[in-house]
Amino acid sequence: MNDTKAHLIKAWPYQQDKMKLPVGNVESALPFYETHLRFHVVNRAETPFKSALLQRDDLQIGLEENGGDPTQDGCFFEVDNVQKAFDECKATGLTKELSDFSFQKYGDINWKVFFIVAPDGLCYCFGQRQQ
After folding, report:
1. N or C end of the chain, less CB within 10 A?
2. Measured in whole angstroms, how far is the alpha carbon of residue 77 from the centre of its chain?
3. Residue 1 lies in a domain
4. What CA–CA distance (Å, rounded) separates 22 from 131?
5. Are strands 74-79 and 102-106 parallel, antiparallel or unpaired?
6. pLDDT score for 1
7. Lowest-confidence segment of 18-22, 38-42, 93-97 by average pLDDT
């Protein structure tokens, strides 16, 4: 593992499926994911919907032109170092899309988190478990 960047460990979708995240236009959405979130395209499809499979580390997500509302979806990404993840995003030029850090509790786990809203409307939360 490269210790200069955050490692994505796991992803939980806000709605049903992290492999079918809705976007209006896959082609126009991809540059944000490649440039700012450092995913790369591993596959594209035209049916049943135009889609792209993206990967970063051992984690995959999918973007689809499936008619869903992107403002109601996204993912929570568990990372090994939330500060590094934040710094990486800032280094790629993201500023207004980034929230400040906050602390949230889900079940019995405390998380240090920040949020990003992509231009396509999908919201992503990056979080690290706290002791």
Report:
1. C
2. 6
3. no
4. 34
5. unpaired
6. 47
7. 93-97
**How many C-beta atoms surround the C-beta of residue 28 within 10 A?**
11
DSSP the chain: --TTS--EEEEEESSS-TTSEE-S-HHHHHHHHHHTS--EEEEEE-SSS-EEEEEETTEEEEEE-SS--GGG-EEEEEES-HHHHHHHHHHTT--TTBPPPEEEEETTEEEEEEEEE-TTS-EEEEEEEE-
Which comes out higher in pLDDT, residue 26 or 1? 26
Global confidence as pTM: 0.92
Report if residue 57 sits inside a domain.
Answer: yes
**Model confidence pLDDT, tens digit, residues 59-73:** 999 999 999 999 999
Instruction: Please check whether residue 2 lies inside any domain of the structure.
Output: no
Number of domains present in the structure of the chain: 1
| Structural tokens at position 91 | 């280094």
